[in-house]
Amino acid sequence: MILPIVGYGDPVLRKVGVEVSPEYPNLKETIANMYETMYNAYGVGLAAPQVGLSIRLFVIDTTPFSDDEDLEKTEQDELKSFKRTFINAKMLKEEGEEWGFNEGCLSIPEVREDVYRNEKITIEYFDEDFNKKTEVFDGLIARVIQHEYDHIEGILFTDKISSLKKQLIKKKLQNIMEGKARPDYKMKFAAKKGR
Description:
This protein is an alpha+beta fold and 195 residues long.
């Protein structure tokens, strides 16, 4: 089922998510709905707060990035096959050079900015079957994970840009809060009910 994506300004996007237990009601269904919602909006990641759930859960599928011809074949192949569910993720380490990439967010439509993040991460999480994993990622996969991880910590990518850039996008953010943004997917705006 495609869920409405919560827009910028909704308080749920600022909450730190609570841990999910294996007994969480309809967890498999929630995960399936999140993937369906993400694909419908042409996203590569979606965190539970973006569908109104203040829990530590996010899903990622980097397949769309694999079409980038500027990437090496090995990285394209890696991106094409990377689909994961992260439950109760805990960032253990962020290291390496910080590098910029133009990021966007399904909760902040029509806004894109360069964000600087570390190139390599170590993260601990549970998969959808509650198997515990600790893995190291780098490049675009690490970046997508960092972006979604921020969501379960109540952080948005716009928090990581300069105050000058924040001033420049202030009107766009206000429009999203007022429900004036018109993405081609279902949204629930802070000031209005979903359309």
